[in-house]
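Hi all, long-time lurker, first post. I run a small reading group and we've been trying to get comfortable going from sequence to structure in the token notation. Rather than ask abstract questions, I figured I'd post a concrete chain and ask someone more experienced to write out its structure so we can walk through it together at our next meeting. Sequence below, copied exactly:
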Amino acid sequence: MRAKMKHSKSPHAPSPHAPSPKRPRTPPSDLSSDQKKPRLSPSSSRDGVCDDTLRIATQLLRDENRQLLADRDALEKSKTALSERLAHTQRSLRDLEDDLARLYRQKQQEMDTQRLELEQKLQDASARPRASKEINSTAGYSKQTTKEIDSFLQSCERWKTRFIALNRKLETKTEKAATQQVQSVVRDLVTSVEMDTLRSDAENTQTRLEWASWLQEDTASCLAKSSRERQETEAFEAMERQLMADRVVELETQLAQKRAVEREKEVELSSLREAQEDQVVSKQEVAALEDEKKRRTEELTQMKNKMEAVEAEKATLKQQNKKLVEEGEEIEKLQRAFKARDAKMITVLKTEREKSSQRKQELQILYAKFSSSMDSVSEKAMRLEEVEQQLRDAQSDARAAETRQKELERQITSLQEENASLLAQLKAQNEALKRQQAEREHQSVGQPSTERTIDDESTLVAQLAEKEALQMFIRRYHSTAEDKCRQLMEKVSALESLRASTQTQTEESCTGEVN
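-- Answer (accepted) --
Happy to help. Here is the structure in token form:
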């Protein structure tokens, strides 16, 4: 850069040993060819900003519409899966009822056959003493035969009582076997339902852990990005300060060179005056020297004006730097708010896990009471259906709450992505400002025209207007996003209250059934 400045200033700084002070000057129109390019007006830049904001808003609405359609498809799929599962469970319950009825009929048939066999044996045993009585009535019998007949009748009665006791024992055993089979079937049903609930709870906890890990990774990446951006801004500020210091040093050196040249010219003029006093000097040379002096004074005034313009640019750059620092602070505040919301979501997930564990314990207690209070197969089946319906309702409520939480997390991620895009836009604008500043520094080496400064001021005004429009858009969208998050949190609290009311109703109904 210094080499360029020296090269551009070499035709304007003649050496003190030159014979004549007059030198040809280069025209200022050859210094920069960018002055003839057309420039955008502030109104066109504002229209472009409005179009960008409308485009961003439409894109956000389209993304939300796509997300809602995807959620609707997922809910329909889950609904079909739940209906299929319900049909399967109903079929399995019907099969179990058929099996129980078949077992009961089989045991009843076996008991009937055993009872008929025993009745047949008793009839045979009672028919034998009658026949013997008829035979003995026709023929004479002795005392010994009567004793034998009495003993035989007593043994028959004993066998009859024994058969009756055995029949009762068999009936009790069959009843116990039927009840044991029913209890084993009910236990198998309860264990299968508990295993399904535990499996679904484990899957839900796994998905929640995955979401929590993804949220943690996203927050870590956002923090790393913010730290990197902060370092880049600090490096850019240091570079800007260094460039300003170098520019000031270069201008000071140029002023020193100009002053040295003026002193040399003054020395030359004094020597020429002395020579004029000694010798007769022509009036034309004196006029040329005076013109050269005027030209040098004009150059000095121009350099002073340039220094003032550089100082004004320095002040504007400081103001822009302050604005960038304020924007960085606002971004940090937004990141803190997002972190607080993530912490709130994690606490809500923890409370829901604790509530689900409490519900599991309550359901286990209810299952124990329910299994102990069952008396017949029909009542058990009806109560099992009621408990399954309550479980389905609770699972549907939990899934709805999980879907709402997933929607909240997706909206938070979309807000973070929008924040990152806005930061990228601000970076791009900052880079554009840097480039324009560098171009101005390169152009300030020569003699810029008034049209160039007017165009630069118009571009600066347009860029500031774009920046203010972007800031207004960020503030408005941040407020709308906060309102949406607040509404979603209110919906979650309403769902939790509904879930608590349903839980209390189920507990009351179960306690009423047990009583």
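A couple of things your group might point at:
The CA atoms of residues 366 and 510 lie 7 Å apart.
The chain has a mean pLDDT of 71.
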